[in-house]
Amino acid sequence: MALRKENAHRGMSQPKSNKRLRLTVVPGSNDADTIYIYSLDKREIVKQLIEDFTRGGKNPNRFDFKKIDLSNADLSGLNLRALGPKALREINFSGANLSGQNFSGINMRGAKLQGAHLEGVNFEGANLENANMKNAYMARANLHGVNAAGANLEGAVAHGANMDGSFKGATLANADLSGCYMGDSNFENAHMSGVNLTGIISYGEMSFRGADLEGAVLNGDFSSANFSGANLLNANLEGGKFTSANFAKANIHGISTDFAELDAGAFNDAVDYGPLNTKNSIEVPKPSFGSKTVAMKALCKELQIDPAVLQNTGKKLEPDSPSPASTAKRRRMVKERFPTLGIDAA
Q1: pLDDT tens digit sequence for 234-287
Q2: What's the CA gap between 237 and 147, in Å, rounded?
Q3: Is the pLDDT of residue 158 over 90?
Q4: Comparing C-alpha atoms, which of 69, 11, 5 is closest to residue 40?
Q5: Residue 24 lies in a domain
Q6: Are 207 and 188 in contact (CB under 8 A)?
């Protein structure tokens, strides 16, 4: 039996135009309900849908939302959860203002959120697989525990967001993730060329295994991060912290490590040592207490050697250029001050 929900039924006059949006049930359903919406205001459309699905007792999962276009609408403050996950996947929310919404735990696979205003939105535990969030503004959004595999976040701005989720194979090219919180964030095989990861705050072990980070800015805390097999061509690691990071088989051609904190021999297993800019970079051992960056820098200055020389852990410690300090003296001083480097003083 067909049921119409019209403004007239609510005691409101219909607009003079006969334009209306018809929301029908999906094919194959036993229920032939149809919702007719006469309002031309997008926010009012959502209000009517919410009323039909809450007070009217209708099941939103039975309706076809594909033709509803809520792009650029201001939907802040509305309870969009009442529309159900199916609506949030199929409705076009591109460019819409969804700030402050709570989408935690909702299946939004393939959602259309490109250019949307998502400031402070709670996506915790949500399924954002293959969602389109290109150029979205996501400052301070909570993406803890999300599955955003294959999602498109190209050019997204997510200052201070919680990115402790899975972004396997996602596109984050030229995204601004500065100041984000990272736990065990998974960016394996992600497309992240030009991404800005300045000042990130790490409290777990991030994985960038196999990711494309060409030209990326990595000026944050990447302690214990996994960059194995990643493409770091021309990446900027200046001032970043990379103690205990794994660069095995990574392409590090052309990277800049000025004032970066790196373990001794950090790049020994990298694919392409390349013409690195190691001026002023500090290669430190893995001490059991704190960082020895200042001491190591002072030692290098005293011995008149480039800090990159200390990558040769366990090998002969040779100067890059003639120096009054003998090779034996260099070895002895380093061994005495930094015994964990394992350099032979003989």
Answers
A1: 999 999 999 999 999 999 999 999 989 998 888 888 886 455 555 555 554 443
A2: 28
A3: yes
A4: 69
A5: yes
A6: yes
**Ranges of H-type helices in the chain:** 42-54, 84-90, 293-303, 327-337
187 closest CA partner among 212, 166, 173, 214: 166
Each residue of 206-229: pLDDT tens digit? Answer: 999 999 999 999 999 999 999 999
Distance from C-alpha of 294 to C-alpha of 5, rounded to nearest angstrom: 72
Per residue in 29-48, is it b (16+ CB within 10 Å) or e — as a string?
eeeebebbbbbeebbebbeb
Question: Domain for residue 281, yes or no?
Answer: no
Q: Rg of the chain's alpha carbons, rounded to an integer?
A: 28
Residues in the chain: 346
Confidence of residue 2 (pLDDT cuts 50, 70, 90): very low
317: in domain: no
Contact yes or no for 96/73 (Cβ under 8 A): yes
Tokens matching residue 307: 């800090």
Number of domains in the chain: 1
Structural domain for 2, as ranges: 1-87
pTM for this predicted structure: 0.71
Single-letter residue type at 133: M
**Residue carrying structure tokens 């820098």:** 297
Check residues 53 and 155 and name the one with the higher pLDDT: 155
**Is residue 222 one of the residues assigned to a domain?**
no
CA 16 to CA 266: how far, in whole Å?
A: 72
Closest among 242, 215, 155, 143 to 185, alpha carbons compared? 143
The C-alpha atoms of residue 158 and residue 344 are separated, in whole angstroms, by 48
| Dihedral Cα 107, 155, 230, 308, nearest 10 deg | -140
